[in-house]
Design brief:
By secondary structure, the chain is mainly α. The chain contains nine helices and three strands. About 50% of the residues lie in helices and about 5% in strands. Strands 1-2-3 form a three-stranded antiparallel beta sheet, with helices on one face. Strand 1 and strand 2 form a beta hairpin. The chain is elongated, with a radius of gyration of 27 Å. The protein starts with 7 loop residues before the first strand and ends in a 9-residue tail after the last helix. The model has no long low-confidence stretch (mean pLDDT about 85).
């Protein structure tokens, strides 16, 4: 659609508006018909000039066959790039989209401001997780990284002229203090892990439980961290 095709209409109260057809949404299959009022326009000609400027800002999204709604543009970002990402990265970004959509998804991309993003982070930290529970600070930091990468792509794709994430502070990571087991807890955990390792069942669930119990037992009695335990080989064992 070109700016020559824009039709300016008028509400009963005299306000001019436009609702152009920009093709079909590639995700939903529905027509893309964004709506914009021009209450400042004094006549149809001025409203048409405003509508042309507005439509020029929508060309990037229209080219991707999506609306300017942030959630849809982020979905297109993932779809366009997931082939070059690791599977875990694509899955993590889908989770980020799932978290951000309820709090910021309906905002148009070019209307996203730094204070809106930071407010969304606060909502996620309060009740953005499953069943309205708080989302961890590390998960919100992951959302921040996702949005930073997404908006670089959005600006490059000319969907929006500016990147609000440049002024958004990265959420601070809150770390809890480590607490040591007391002797009684240590002994109880050691007995439980030993019992799990002694289970000789060949059922898949039991084999997995026995393997995890062995890894946890090694960590408990040697002080090795998760990555160090997983890196052990048979040659490392000194019976």
């Amino acid at each position: 659609m070109t700016s020559k095709d824009i039709v300016i209409k008028q509400h009963d109260d005299g306000t001019f508006y436009a609702r152009p057809y920009l093709g079909t949404n590639a995700v939903t299959g529905k027509p893309i018909r964004p709506y914009k009022r021009f209450p400042e326009a004094v006549d149809e000609g001025e409203a048409l000039e405003m509508a042309r400027e507005w439509l020029a800002g929508l060309s990037g999204a229209a080219g991707m066959r999506t609306t300017m709604r942030l959630a849809e543009v982020l979905d297109r970002y993932i779809t366009a790039n997931e082939a070059q990402w690791a599977d875990n990265t694509a899955k993590a970004y889908r989770n980020c989209l799932h978290w951000i959509e309820p709090v910021l998804g309906d905002v148009d991309v070019d209307e996203v401001k730094p204070h809106l993003v930071e407010a969304a982070y606060n909502v996620l930290l309060l009740r953005g997780g499953a069943n309205g529970k708080a989302l961890s600070s590390s998960s919100v930091r992951q959302v921040h990284g996702f949005l930073c990468g997404a908006f670089k792509w959005i600006v490059k794709s000319e969907v929006s002229p500016f990147n609000p994430m440049a002024s958004v502070a990265k959420p601070r990571l809150e770390r809890g203090e480590a607490q040591a087991f007391c002797e009684a807890d240590f002994a109880a955990l050691q007995r439980a892990l030993a019992g799990a390792m002694a289970d000789g069942s060949t059922a898949r669930a039991n084999v997995a439980r026995r393997t995890c119990a062995m890894a946890a037992y090694l960590s408990l009695v040697t002080g090795e961290r998760c990555g160090e335990v997983c890196a052990n080989t048979v040659a490392d064992a000194q019976l």
